[in-house]
Protein 1
Amino acid sequence: MRSRDIERALRRAQQLCAARGARLTPVRRRVLELILAAAQPIGAYALLAALQGERGKLGPPTVYRALDFLLAHKLVHKIESVSAFVACDDADHPHQSQFMICDDCGATEEIQDEAIVESLRRLGEDRGFSVARQVIEARGLCPACRAAHR
Ligand SMILES: [Zn+2]
Ligand SMILES: [Zn+2]
């Protein structure tokens, strides 16, 4: 993401937290900034390494607490299959999303398809199962990598 877009996303996150009476502390803000700046989903240990480089000694719990906060406020999503995080640019609207992840370069695209969400919810209902959370991650090749493979 370009630095101007990152600045804008950070400002919006700040406003969102303020409206919810939550505090985007400097560490939480910096973690979000690192996730926004990463070209691909970024894991907790890469975040920890970056923060330690800037702020000196600092334990994994600090990063995990910041990530928990960002997840709770839907500012980031966790990509379960790679245990890494991506920023969400639609944090003000509750949504379930699906992800397309490139096997080659790791590029990850968030999509929001209500039909998929509804379909899985209904399939659960039919079985007396209550779906609380959906994890849908498609793997394959992104347009750029497909072009490079041709
Ligand atoms: Zn999202
Ligand atoms: Zn790719």
Note: Residues 102, 104-105, 107, 141-142, 144-145 surround zinc ion (ligand 2) (CB under 6 Å).
Protein 2
Amino acid sequence: MSLVDNATPHMAKDYDGVIRATIPFYDLMQSETMDLIETLKPDVACWLDTGCGTGHLVEMALPRFRDALFIMADPSEAMLAEAKRRFANIAPERLKFLPPIGSAAIAADILPCPPQVITAVLCHHYLDEAGRQRAVRSCFKVLARAGVFVQFENIDFEEASLNQNALERWAKYQKDQGRPPAQVESHVRRFGTGYFPITIDEHLELLRRTGFATAGMFWLSHMQAGFYAVK
Ligand SMILES: C[S@@+](CC[C@H](N)C(=O)[O-])C[C@H]1O[C@@H](n2cnc3c(N)ncnc32)[C@H](O)[C@@H]1O
């Protein structure tokens, strides 16, 4: 049984302190998302962040998208508690929390508005194939017409040597950031055990098969890829 209070290897209360030492260019992934949405949906009025974790993405987005209501969703109560602490001073017209819920269970009748943007950052790679399909399908269904879905995930390069090289680079990154070697080794062993990456082509194929009119990749660094799709 997992000793942590969410699907990541970090306790929710420790997440913000350790995530940048774990994921290379974490802040850049989020700011690139801001840039993408400022380009494609600058007037977004309703934005769902599923797998919101402690809420860093929405903290970045709140001052940049002043007309938007942000809906926060995550299956981990502990993560939602951290996010609620972060946003204690934000007006309820700007921010709504769903009860603990995974993406697959999100449906229109529990949302306060139809999202024109849905972000899912590093939160669907914990799912198996069927679970991932359900998660993406639910996001597609509740997304408004012409809405934009953004997803980041750890990916599989398909070729064993490419994965090995990428994992070694990732381990080096974490050690350079000061993470203890035993934690780094345990993190590297999560590939295919603690999270279940699929290839870039499989991502694009799933997005198209789900019904998105357009699907592309807009970010790749180390083993993290960012995709966006338009309904
Ligand atoms: C690595 S954290 C990412 C958090 C946040 N998006 C960020 O960028 O910092 C992964 C998050 O995914 C959530 N998660 C796990 N399974 C999920 C699912 N089925 N649907 C949505 N979120 C999920 C976890 O609770 C956790 O908060």
Note: The radius of gyration is 17 Å.
